[in-house]
Amino acid sequence: MGARSFSLDLNILNSFNQHGLDDLKNAKLMNRVDSKFLLPMAQLPLLLKDLKPHCSLLNINGNLLAQYENVYYDTPEFDFYHQHHNGKLNRVKVRRRCYADHDLAFLNLKLNLINHAPKKPELKLSPTMKLSSLQPLRRSSACRNLGH
């Protein structure tokens, strides 16, 4: 079966309530639970319509969509992945996030410790900084474009 083409009109995003970066100063974004779902693209307009009364979109310089790429780092034996998958309570995750639209990159170290909220110290990276001593699980095009 061949791939179907699908175009999506994202103009509905312009009708959402919006907030800027200054509004995030008092937000507690580091203490949250994320749930991820797969959704057929054809259902996205209906979902956005249902979410509109309950959501506000971050507007950065007129942009409501942000392009970023993550590169996760692990040991050659994938210890970090296996610890997470097996529910180990004391574990670590190392990630480099590149914001292609803003020429920014951060190295995040997420520590999940028993009886403590997850800690996520981060280090701002220069877009030209190389992390050759670490082994990425995958390379992303946006990070390559930033010189990583």
UniProtKB/TrEMBL annotation:
One Pfam family assigned to this protein is VTC
At the top level, the lineage of the source is Bacteria
The record's annotation in InterPro entries points to: VTC_domain (IPR018966), VTC_sf (IPR042267)
Per the database record, which ranges form the VTC domain? 31-127
The record ties this protein, via Gene3D superfamilies, to: VTC, catalytic tunnel domain
Protein name (database record): VTC domain-containing protein
Lineage of the native species? Bacteria, Pseudomonadati, Pseudomonadota, Gammaproteobacteria, Alteromonadales
